[in-house]
Amino acid sequence: MNVQFATTALNTRMAFLVELATRLHKYGASSPRLEMAITSSAHRIGLSADVWSSPTAIIISFADLAQGDEGRLAQVTQVVRLLPGDVNLDKLCRADEIADRVIAGELDLREGFRLLRALEIPDTPRQQAGVILSYGLSAAAIDALFLHTAWTDLLVAAFVGLMIGTITILSATRPRLQVASDAICAMVATLTAIVVSAFVVPLAIKSVVLAGLIVLVPGMSLTTAVREISSQHLVSGMARMGGAMSTLLKLTFGTVAATQICAVLHIEPRDFALPALPGWIDYPALLLAAIAFAILFRAALRDWPVVILAVIAGYLTTRLGGEISLSISGAPFGVFLGGLLLSAMANLYARYAGRPGAVIREPGILLLVPGSVGFRSVSYLLERNATLGFDTGILLVTLLISLVAGLMFGELLIAPRRSL
User: Fold this and answer.
1) How far, in Å, CA of 20 to CA of 96, rounded?
2) Distances from the Cα of 93 to the Cα of 14, 96, 225, 366, 370, angstroms
3) What are the backbone angles phi and psi of residue 325, rounded to the nearest 5°?
4) Which of 43, 71, 243, 297 is exposed most, by the fewest CB atoms within 10 A?
5) What is the distance between the alpha carbons of residues 335 and 331, in angstroms, rounded to a whole number?
6) Cα(126)–Cα(131) distance, rounded to whole angstroms?
């Protein structure tokens, strides 16, 4: 423990740690990493902290180490109610830097608390426009990389992505809209695809809808949930799993409702594929996806090269692994290799750059997470195609297990030196 903290008021130290935990939660830290970060920080400023984190709450019990066993008996418990956080790499890195500077003695606790609070500023119009653009770019990139449809499908998917990004930004300040935003976005995406296919140009409707909704599909949440369950954070993992499943159900309901509305209005879609995109489009699409994810996760400009490298390396490793092992296990083995590489890269980056490994890990695995498979599985079940639905569900579980195993083995290969 740094000696300077021994004379600092207990309430001041607790307030700093609670604010730090709130920021880390809000900016996308998973429960195991948040708990490790706060426990380690508390010990270095003379406190013992028992931390319990879930997607919607944080509970921390503090005790003063200077008081020995008596201090442990006189614990103070803080309960913070929160909404599930979204990944914001820039603010996550800034919060981590503030904590490091406070612990190193460069800032006092009150100044650190003030700087953490100062991170709570709304996005500027320029930042909001960037997020909306990232939705459109992500939809176009996913359509080209994975769905391999026609140019018209790609353009419509990008337009759908822009609309969904706009709805998402508007819902951030409107609680009633936010609750139903997933279903509304799915309805808008499906209605747009069907109307365009009926009156403008034929489309591969399911592919266009999936590409447009790809950012909302909770593949990252499903992956984090399985990681938390595998690390014995059972309450947080199951809660996150429930949230992801509810999102899948809302998205699926929105698509089904839009289809029924069009049927009632006698709008007949022309649902068939036009000539597919050329093979060379994969490479610019991959670069486009990397840039879109850097914007989507709000990475600082200094981290853009690292984010782009992580996305490209993760995708190429997964693709290569799937191709060389096609006779054995195919996609699951490729996903395992991609997760292994990204986890090791994230720990190396955190060790030598002194910044959170989340800068590499979070955007890097976005192309690996099987959220689209979960969406298709639920869609098949609602269409009463039970056989295909269960088969797709088994594939979802296999891919999730492969990805989480890769992330865990990556941490065994190169041990993390930082909590984040």
Assistant:
1) 8
2) 21, 5, 23, 19, 27
3) -110, 20
4) 43
5) 6
6) 9
* Mean residue pLDDT across the chain: 88
Instruction: Give pLDDT, residue 185.
Output: 95
Cα angle 12, 419, 97 (rounded to 5 degrees) comes to: 55
DSSP per-residue string spanning 206-255: HHHHHHHHTTTS-HHHHHHHHHHHHTT-HHHHHHHHHHHHHHHHHHHHHH
The answer to which of 6-15, 304-313, 348-357 has the lowest mean pLDDT is 6-15
pLDDT tens, position by position, 195-231: 999 999 999 898 899 999 988 988 888 889 988 998 8
Residue 239, C-beta contacts closer than 8 angstroms, at least 6 positions apart: 54, 55, 56
Q: Which of 303, 350, 292, 272 is CA-nearest to residue 132?
A: 292
Structure tokens given for 140: 């176009």
Q: Does residue 167 contact residue 185 with C-beta atoms inside 8 Å?
A: yes
Residue 326 CA to its chain's centroid (Å):
28
Residues forming beta bridges with residue 271, ordered by sequence position: 203
Domains of the chain and any CATH numbers: 3-118 (3.30.1300), 125-279 (no CATH), 299-420 (no CATH)
Assess whether pLDDT exceeds 60 at residue 329: no
CA–CA dist 284, 308 (Å, integer): 12
Give tens-digit pLDDT for 73-119: 557 889 999 988 889 999 999 999 999 999 888 888 999 999 999 99
Q: Which residues pair with 47 in a beta bridge?
A: 64
The pTM for the full model equals: 0.90
C-alpha triplet 11, 14, 19: angle, nearest 5°: 125
In this prediction, residue 407 has a pLDDT band, given cuts at 50, 70 and 90, of very high
pLDDT at 1 over 60: no
CA atoms of 334 and 6, how far apart (whole Å): 51
pLDDT(308) > 70: yes
Q: How confident is the model at residue 333 (pLDDT cuts 50, 70, 90)?
A: confident
The answer to whether 29 and 55 have CB atoms below 8 angstroms apart is no
